[in-house]
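In full, the data.
>
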Amino acid sequence: MAMITPITPNPVNTPAMTQVWPVAGWGSYSRTMSTEQSAVGDSSLPAGTSGAAARTRRTWDLVLSIVLLVVLVGFGAIAAFAGAFLAFASDPCTAQTCDYDLLNAGVLTAMLSPVVIALIAIIVTVLLLVRRRLAFWVPLAAYALITAVWVTAAIVVSSAVEV
């Protein structure tokens, strides 16, 4: 069993101070730094560790992100389901009055883009939460993007139908 050694800085008159980092599984890690480096504010991290290890988890961000992601799944499913109803815009169409390629593109975009956007938002949010970065904004941006893409797809479907 490794003995935990307290971190004690050298006296102020010396140009460098040594810190020993006892971390379970790493053995002991020592780092020598100058007093200028310790004033920067990153002196509490051993070399080779990222800032994510030192970041504290924001509980409110974690809870809010999870709630927003759960609601996003429902929002994406409803938007995809509503996209299927855009196909009914072709009811008054004949072969001469409608552009079926444009109509199909609009309907497929309205049906598939909410699912794809929601999946990307879930992945990005989880990655940000793992790295202990703010993540609640990703589902909010996904709501806006799903809405914008769906409305654009509806406009495309509407322009394909010439009544």
Summary: Residues 106 and 153 are 5 Å apart (CA to CA). The chain has two domains: 16-49, 59-160. Residues 17-21, 32-43 have pLDDT under 50 and may be disordered. Helices lie at 35-40, 59-84, 100-130, 137-160.
